[in-house]
Design a protein that fits this description.
Blueprint (H helix, E strand, L loop, with lengths): L1 H11 L2 E5 L14 H13 L5 E3 L2 E8 L2 E8 L7 H11 L6 E7 L7 E4 L8 H10 L6 E5 L9 H5 L8 H21 L1 H8 L3
Parallel strand pairs: 1-4, 1-5, 5-7
Antiparallel strand pairs: 2-3, 3-4, 6-7
Helix pairs in contact: 2-6, 3-4, 6-7
Length: about 200
Amino acid sequence: MEDNNNSIKQGHGPWLIAGLGNPDNQYEHTRHNIGFMVADRISEKFGILVDRNKFKLLYGKGKTGLRIVFIAKPMAYMNLSGPPLKKLSAYFDLAPECMLVIHDDIDIELGKIKIKAKGGHGGHNGVRSIIEAFGCGDFPRIRIGIGRPDSEKSVTGHVLGSILEDEKLIYTQAIENAADAAATIIDSGIAYAMNRFNKA
């Protein structure tokens, strides 16, 4: 019953979609920037330009149906993602439970996506920063699987490494699925979206 109540509450308020990544050009095509890539795809789908610069982030504001949606990309580094999002949320009076955070996850198989209603940071520094800034983990996430590296490559090297040529189609589909999942969360709620997208 709690999930249904959360879905109703989330469905009626303005949404903030936050894609996580690193701002410099050298990180543009890395696995760690998949959140930025999904935010860009959602921007295209919703027709919302992410071109306003405030609080060390880029953001845009628009509508999908009758719902107001903000799309944001923090321009601080990944481990400093929280404070810019907290400032934007406070400025526009946005509720944490209506902030959808999109990020990479090494513990999920490459190309798979998982929706999570709330929780801890799971070792992700960007999510950790957001939890610290907001004082809670009561916000939904879309996690995009980038898989773990083989034994010869460090986790840092894998996460900050560029997407390989033979992985591009997998990531393109994952980005599309994540964008569809975000639209479904906004239109139909977390519970429905989790049932639809959280497939093994």
